[in-house]
Amino acid sequence: MAHEPSSIPLGALDAARDAAIEAGRIALGYFRHGGKTSAGVSYKEGGSPVTEADLAVDRFLKKRLTDIAPAFGWLSEETADNAARLRRRHVWVVDPIDGTRSFARGDKDWTVALGLVEDGAPVAGFVYAPVQDVMYEALPGGPALRNGMEIRATGHATVERARIAGPGPILDAMQAARTPFQRMPRIHSLAYRLVHVAEGSVDGALASGRAHDWDLAAAHAIVAASGAVVQTTSGQPPAYNRPSTVHEPIVAASGALAADLARMLAAGPVARAAGHKDAIAGL
């Protein structure tokens, strides 16, 4: 079957970039460097926090992006899911504040993550770090950019001496297995962690088996445009806009390094630390 041509409205992605920057400014209104946010904080089922700022940014982006492209679906961490998105070819996939815990305590490693998915694959992404005023982006067929300048992943091919960022338990397990890598400081926003691969400041980034579409889609587009890959432990790119938004453990790195890291995350103590379903089941 021939692939249907893309039908992204003219100017929609430029407007989406502007919306991500404006969303960051809204969030900064509640942010306190090194201190507790001025926003009210509540907790979802399962204990993850959500602030007034998350909800304000979510409302702004939903209205702005729906106005930009009324035919597109919508999926956001802070909006009740609507199965109508499954019938849409294009879906905005949004995390209004990725790294809410960091945001709430006054740390700087949080972002606004805005991705566009087409037929289940990410085709454009914007990851904006408001505290640093840094925009990472990728448009269909274009390079990965950081504040308008092209960026590329390192292409580091082996775990040996690779600079790896990821959740503490995974890196602890890798170190316990005497894996010869360089452990990088924790980056709490997963989208921000992944785009560090795109800019070459880390060689590989890892995510446990609890990431959702909104944590990944925007950064996935940027990493892919930088020459690296985002893949699951089975070696496949994650698919988006499915009934379930939850993913198995994820690796972002150059192709060869990604394959090695994926194998590590799929078996043994590292897999258990990553929350791999087969490891949890004892398989």
TrEMBL record:
What is the protein name for this chain? 3'(2'),5'-bisphosphate nucleotidase CysQ
Keyword annotations of the record: Hydrolase, Magnesium, Metal-binding
Q: Does the keyword Magnesium apply?
A: yes
Q: Which Pfam families match?
A: Inositol_P
- Can you tell me where the transmembrane regions are? none
Residues that bind Mg(2+): E77, D95, I97, D98, D215
One GO MF term on file is: metal ion binding
Q: Write down the InterPro entries for this protein, in alphabetical order.
A: Inositol_monoP_metal-BS, Inositol_monophosphatase-like, Inositol_monophosphatase_CS
| Gene Ontology biological process terms in this record | inositol metabolic process; phosphatidylinositol phosphate biosynthetic process; signal transduction
